[in-house]
Specification:
The protein is of the alpha+beta class. It folds into two domains: about 90 residues; about 160 residues, Adenine-n6-DNA-methyltransferase TaqI, Chain A, domain 2. Helix content is about 45%, strand content about 15%. The strands form five sheets. A four-stranded antiparallel sheet has the order 2-11-8-9. The protein has a four-stranded mixed sheet with strand order 3-7-4-10, with no helix packed on it. A hairpin with a 2-residue loop joins strand 5 and strand 6. Helix 3 packs parallel to helix 10 and helix 9 runs antiparallel to helix 10. The longest helix is centred in the last third of the chain and has 37 residues. It is elongated and about 75 Å long.
């Protein structure tokens, strides 16, 4: 009904007068109350997911000792030409003291490893051949910090013989774009997908948990290394697999990795539940319009017994 009132071509808009033309069904108080209940439970589940996500990063930073760490920001600094040639970089930003300070701190724990040594696969995707059927495609807007969003927004594509597929247990890292570059998320869905050419697949070796790795990359320790190793300017910035391999990662004790994984899995489940609850609320409205309020109430009563968020 909203689309029917939109005006314009590329820049669609909805005027206030046209918005008033959209008819809204007024259901019984009983049905409205049940729909509100689904929405409120969905919101509580989503807030619980956000808390779990924050708790996971807090656990990492507190255990590593970076919870209150402040990056040094001197007014000036000097690097030798030897350092520049060894790094293959001539941009002053790459050599900011905060980066060296972070890496030195991680190495001082005695558990520092290069990211490349922890991976079976470090490969960016290719431009997919989109089609009506096939596997879902993951692009940079689907890789949110801590979550790979999979829904009706994901287009489909046909796979070629040389296509690298995303598998459950992978970590996805955005490799391009201001605002999205460096965002990482564990792929916790139980089906394969196709990465586009802006998404890098990181497949960890045994001993480093994929969920823990994603949390590390999203923490201040990971974000600073993204900032250090990205290339380009004027909005055309890139993070290439060979630079990702040079990241320094804290190989946390297995008990810490397990605790962080549990928190992220709980967060993922809460997000899934929030989406299901919201979809249930929308479906109840559709049933009331397409069938009857009685059918919608029966649907709500059946669904309420399944979704109860503390």
């Amino acid at each position: 009904m909203l689309w029917r009132q939109f005006q314009g071509n590329v820049q669609l808009h909805l005027s206030l007068d046209d918005g008033r033309k959209v008819p809204i069904p007024r259901f019984s108080a009983d049905l409205q109350t049940k729909i509100v209940s689904f929405f409120q439970q969905s919101d509580r589940a989503r807030q619980a997911a956000i808390r779990q996500l924050k708790n996971a990063e807090t656990t990492l930073l507190r255990t590593l000792g970076l919870e209150n760490w402040q990056a040094p920001e001197p007014l000036s600094y000097i690097r030798s030409s030897r350092d520049a040639f060894a790094a293959g970089r001539l941009d002053a930003e790459h050599f900011q003291p905060k980066f060296e300070s972070l890496i030195t701190y991680i190495k001082s724990t005695g558990r520092a490893k290069s990211l490349g040594s922890l991976l079976y696969l470090n490969q960016r995707g290719k431009q997919p051949d989109y089609a009506d059927n096939g596997l879902p495609v993951v692009n940079s807007k689907h890789v949110i910090s801590g979550e790979v969003r999979m829904d009706s927004d994901n287009r489909k594509a046909i796979t070629a013989d040389n296509t690298f597929l995303i598998e459950p247990g992978d970590v996805l890292l955005n490799g391009t774009g201001v605002g999205t570059i460096g965002r990482a998320a564990p792929y916790l869905h139980n089906f394969k997908a196709i990465p586009d050419n802006h998404v890098t697949i990181l497949r960890p070796r045994k001993g480093i948990d994929s969920v823990y790795l994603a949390v590390f990359l999203n923490s201040v320790a990971g974000r600073l290394q993204v900032e250090q190793r990205l290339r380009g300017s004027s909005g055309q910035i890139e993070l290439y697999p060979n630079d990702i391999a040079e990241f320094t990662v804290w190989d946390a004790p297995s008990v810490v990795q397990g605790e962080i994984r549990k928190q992220i899995e709980d967060s993922f489940q809460q997000k899934q539940r929030a989406t299901e609850l919201l979809n249930t609320a929308k479906r109840a409205v559709e049933i009331a319009i397409e069938d009857s309020e009685a059918a919608a109430l029966a649907y709500c009563n059946d669904a309420l017994s399944k979704y109860t968020v503390p």
